[in-house]
Each structure stands twice: as structure tokens, then as C-alpha cells.
């Protein structure tokens, strides 16, 4: 009987963690992170789960004779925004699970 009670408590804890994780994922969907490159010439905004929401490019960054520079700035800002989103996801999942081992973050980010 003792083992059954322990199993029930463990299942309840699992359900609580699952509910907290669902709340954390919803919060991250609503949260945004913003990253820039080139001293603010390119700015990328992403959801807390890493989905790109917007890209802003200052006209000063557009040099028709050097498209590679703009490509590099966009890539740098995208990479930084997704990295910040991953950090936000890790923080939220750690908070939701109370430090328990987390699921694969790539699957949570939709990748």
C-alpha cells in the first residue's frame, strides 16, 4: 500500500511539472527577445521559443556594392536572437521543472 501511495504522489508531481511546463511554453510564446548587430543597423525580434517575428534593417546598412555585409549583419542578429530565446527557454524550463532533467530543448523550440 505504501508503494501505491508513493506512486500516486509521483504521478501527481509529474502532472504538476507537466502543467508548469505548458504554462512556461505559453509564456515563452508571448515573450519576445530582441538582438541587433552592426551597432543597431540590423535588429531581429523573436519569440521566447525562437520564432522570428520581425527584422528591421536601417537603410544605412544597405550598400548595393557590398551585399555580403548586410547578409552577415542579418545572420549575426538572427543567431543572437535565437541564442537569447534558447537561454530564456532554458531558464523557464528549469523554473518549471524545479531543476529536474529537462526534455530536449530543440523539440520544445520546434526544431
Concise overview:
This protein is α+β, with helices and mostly antiparallel strands and 111 residues long. It contains 3 helices and 3 strands, in the order H-E-E-E-H-H.
Radius of gyration of CA atoms, rounded to a whole number: 20 Å
Classify the secondary structure makeup into a structural class.
Answer: alpha+beta
Oligomer: single chain
* Count of β-strands: 3
Helical content band:
55-70%
| Percentage of β-strand residues | 15-25%
Helix/strand order, N-terminal first: HEEEHH
Per the principal axes of the C-alpha atoms, what is the gross shape?
rod-shaped
Low-confidence stretches at least 5 residues in length (pLDDT < 50)?
Answer: none
Helix count from the secondary structure assignment = 3
Largest sheet, in brief, is:
3 strands, antiparallel
What is the average per-residue confidence, as pLDDT, rounded to a whole number? Answer: 84
Which strand order do you get reading across the main beta sheet? 1-2-3
Q: State the separation between the terminal residues, measured CA to CA.
A: 43 Å
Please give a structural write-up.
The chain has 111 residues and is of the alpha+beta class. Helices cover 58% and strands 16% of the residues. The chain is built from three helices and three strands, in the order αβββαα. The chain has a three-stranded antiparallel β-sheet. β2 and β3 form a beta hairpin. α1 packs antiparallel against α2 (67-97). The longest helix has 31 residues, at 67-97. The mean pLDDT is 84.
Amino acid at each position: 500500500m505504501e508503494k501505491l501511495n508513493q506512486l500516486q504522489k509521483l504521478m501527481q508531481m509529474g502532472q504538476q511539472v507537466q502543467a508548469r511546463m505548458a504554462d512556461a511554453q505559453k509564456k515563452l510564446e508571448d515573450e519576445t527577445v530582441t538582438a541587433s548587430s552592426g551597432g543597431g543597423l540590423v535588429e531581429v525580434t523573436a519569440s521566447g521559443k525562437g520564432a522570428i517575428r520581425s527584422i528591421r534593417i536601417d537603410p544605412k546598412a544597405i550598400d548595393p556594392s557590398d551585399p555580403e555585409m548586410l547578409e552577415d549583419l542579418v545572420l549575426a542578429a538572427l543567431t543572437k536572437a535565437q541564442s537569447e530565446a534558447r537561454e530564456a527557454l532554458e531558464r523557464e524550463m528549469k523554473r518549471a521543472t524545479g531543476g529536474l532533467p529537462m526534455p530536449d530543448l530543440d523539440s520544445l523550440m520546434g526544431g
